[in-house]
Amino acid sequence: MTIKRRQFIKAAGAVGAATGLSLSGLRFANAGSGKHVVVVGGGAGGATCAKYIRHFDPSVEVTVIEPKTEFATCFMSNWVIAGFKEQNWITHGYGDWSRKHGIKVIHDLVVDIDAAKQTVICKSGQVVNYDRCVVSPGVDMKYDTIDGYSEAASHLVPHAWHAGPQTTVLRKQLEAMPDGGLFVMAAPPNPFRCPPGPYERASLVAHYFKQHKPRSKVLILDSKDAFSKQGLFTAGWKQHYGFGTDDSMIEWRSKANDGTVQAVNADNRTAMTTFDEIKADVLNVIPAQTAGHIAYKAGLTDASGWCPVNHMTWESKMHKNVHVIGDAAIASPLPKSGYAANSEGKVCAAAVVAMLKGNDVPTPSWVNTCYSLVTPDHGVSVAMVYDAKDGKVSKVKGSGGLTPVGGAYGLEAVYAESWYLNIVDDMFG
Predict the structure, then answer these.
(1) Tell me, what's the pLDDT at 195?
(2) Confidence of residue 32 (pLDDT cuts 50, 70, 90)
(3) Contact status, residue 185 vs residue 218, Cβ threshold 8 Å
């Protein structure tokens, strides 16, 4: 860890305070500005941005268009899969949130955005005008990157990377699996949503097996040769699951060791690599990812499949008056995480309010913190503070770091739950 936790909290707090001061200057009381912002997507980024636009300027009308009536967070969904949290713990409604912040919510699917006419077109046929549009569509799966895998196949072999019904399906498959069975996970290539997520999932599935099906195994087939928090995860796997021994409950097979899954047979839950064919009792395939479909349909993506944006405002480089935040945006070195989406949502809200007024946008800063569990009592984290250099997101040297090896893992597990409750309150509270 490059700085002690106390130093990090102090640094992060300083950033928050600085951001708060700069944003407080954006409040103005001219009721009825006549400006309308449409937010497409009510997840981590979209909900945060909508709420903070209203917070910074209550005179701006904000409409969120989101097909689901409740939103389940992908982050912490592994806790549900492992069986020590219920689905309703990660599920958040819009009713109270909408009334509290004066945000109009339309439950519909956006099928197109006409940037020239500044309109959003819904599946129902409804057309909504905007002065500025914020698009936070999350990610879609690239099913065609694995032979035999498809959206239909994902009902038998769930990816469970969009929290919701597939989270429950995967949980039930684990419960039904016999002791001595094999859980196989295909981990995705970079970039993808929640970089430590697959390895937390493997950890917590192993924990479930250790408690209830101790002869069972976890095999991670990875299309990468390294992964987020790798040293902390593997140290935890050695401590709890015998990693690296002949009797290890977890095996990790890297890309260099034929870990990339090339094809699957969903009917018999078989994964095929270049040189191997593995029959699983429960198969969890997390494919490569891309920006959510509406971003592609609206012409907001480039050849990479992700959305190029101006980091000072999060305005699209493809269309004026349209902003893109969250996992869909090209935001590196910010990761594709719920916490980063929350941070981007606030910066974007401040920029949108300033731009609607014709003012200069404030100087942004961002923060990311991410907790993962190796067991319910063994947590690890990574954190970083970012500022803007030459108009782009840049890491603040010495501002972040990882849980130190041999650190207070029990406290980190306590912090993880507190972190979740605080961040979802900031989004949906």
Answers:
(1) 96
(2) low
(3) yes
With 80 as the cut, is the pLDDT of residue 10 above it? no
Structure tokens at 426: 């900031």
Picking from 74, 76, 93, 72, the residue whose alpha carbon sits closest to that of residue 84 is 76
Going by pLDDT thresholds of 50, 70 and 90, the confidence category of residue 139 is very high
Beta bridge partners of 402: 382
Burial of 401 (0-12, 13-18, 19+ CB in 10 A): middle
Confidence of residue 336 (pLDDT cuts 50, 70, 90): very high
Strands 182-187 and 282-285: parallel
Q: What angle do CA 417, 420, 424 make, to 5 degrees?
A: 150
Instruction: Give the pLDDT confidence of 193-239 residue by residue, as tens digits.
Output: 999 999 999 999 999 999 999 999 999 999 999 999 999 999 999 99
Q: Where are the beta strands (DSSP E) in 331-377?
A: 365-375
What's the rounded Cα separation, in Å, for the pair 320 and 240? Answer: 52
Place of tokens 């009308």: 61
Element (H, E) at 104: strand 104-106
User: In 10 A of CB 412, how many CB atoms?
Assistant: 22
| Tens-place pLDDT, residues 382-426 | 999 999 999 999 999 999 899 998 889 999 999 999 999 999 999
Tokens of 32: 């009825």
* Residue 405: predicted pLDDT: 86
Q: pTM, whole model, 2 decimals?
A: 0.91
Question: Could you tell me whether strands 91-93 and 104-106 are parallel, antiparallel, or unpaired per DSSP bridges?
Answer: unpaired
Pairwise CA distance, residues 373 & 354, whole Å: 39
Q: In 25-94, which ranges are continuous DSSP H helix?
A: 44-56, 77-81
Based on its alpha-carbon atoms, the radius of gyration of the chain, rounded to whole angstroms, reads 22
Q: Which residue do the tokens 């603040």 mark?
A: 396
Which of 143, 136, 155, 150 minimizes the C-alpha distance to 62? Answer: 136
Can you give the length of the chain in residues? 429
Looking at residue 374, the DSSP 8-state letter turns out to be E
CA distance 104 to 5: 40
- Give the CA-trace dihedral at 413, 415, 416, 421, to 10 degrees: 140
Beta strands 322-324 and 61-65 are: unpaired
* pLDDT at residue 26 in the model: 38
